[in-house]
Amino acid sequence: MNHSASVTVDDCTDCLIIIGPCKGSVFIRDCKSCLVYAICQQFRTRDCELGVFLFCSTAPIIEESTVEFFPLMLYYNKIGEHMNSAGLSPFTNLWSRVHDFTPNGRQPRFILYKEPTPGSLSDFQKSKISKIFGIEGLSFHEDESFLFVTEADRNPDPSMERVLVLFKMVENTPIEKFYAEAVLFLRDLTTKHHLKLLTTNDFVVQKGELQTILQSKSVKHSGRIITMEITGRDVRAILSSTAKQLSAKDVVEIVAADKTSKYKEKLYRLAEVQNSV
């Protein structure tokens, strides 16, 4: 596995295609009965019939294609380094926001599976998957994955409190280290404490920008921020306890309940604007 600038795949049939972090576009054309694993900035298909396990930082685009989409769960030793080299954040993933340029009336040309199950995989897909699941150093288990699937895609329990967390980059921290720490923080919450991750956003704020956006003089951070919306039983207590275990101070801000709506509106909009550029 390695990173790349762009990838084009043409005229494949009955193939297993695995694409490591790609800085630009993955474009698949005229391919039939193929299974694809991909991490990329942009994903496009034309005249294809595919099953796709996908991480994509922009909305996938299909044209004259029939595609089954699954979220990608993946870990290997250098995935953080490769994603950083490709300029990809593990916290900006729009895999499920598919845009079909050639919709077929009322019959959708694509299906979204929130997680792979035996019933959602064809015999062909199962046979291809079996070839890579035993490869040493590769893991496709959710509990080990460097990539996350947000529970907003899985109909979370509406009775549970939702808490917004700001994970802030300390000045002069290498971005690869920052992302690795954020992944470990989230993995502890989701695996050890069984909390659910609802949404993530990743963006950069300039000096004084947060004060203007949130209309609060007490907010002074500048630099990169990851927002994490988390839910589950005793979520605030668990977040507070877990945040105290971090080596660096002031990395985690747990947003008060009465400020959450305003923070989400303003910060999510900022993230959307930055990621659309």
Automatic annotation (TrEMBL):
Top-rank taxon: Eukaryota
Gene Ontology molecular function, alphabetical: GTP binding; GTPase activator activity
Matching Gene3D superfamilies: 2.160.20.70
Claim: Ribonucleoprotein is one of the keywords in the record: no
PROSITE patterns, sorted: C_CAP_COFACTOR_C
Keyword Membrane attached: no
Positions contributing to GTP binding: G24, S25, Q41, Q42, F43, R44
Record key words, sorted: GTP-binding, Nucleotide-binding
Pfam families, sorted: TBCC
C-CAP/cofactor C-like domain boundaries: 1-103
GO process annotations (BP): post-Golgi vesicle-mediated transport
GO cellular component: cilium; periciliary membrane compartment
Similarity-based family: Belongs to the TBCC family.
Protein name: C-CAP/cofactor C-like domain-containing protein
Species this protein is from: Acrobeloides nanus
Phylogenetic placement of the source organism: Eukaryota, Metazoa, Ecdysozoa, Nematoda, Chromadorea
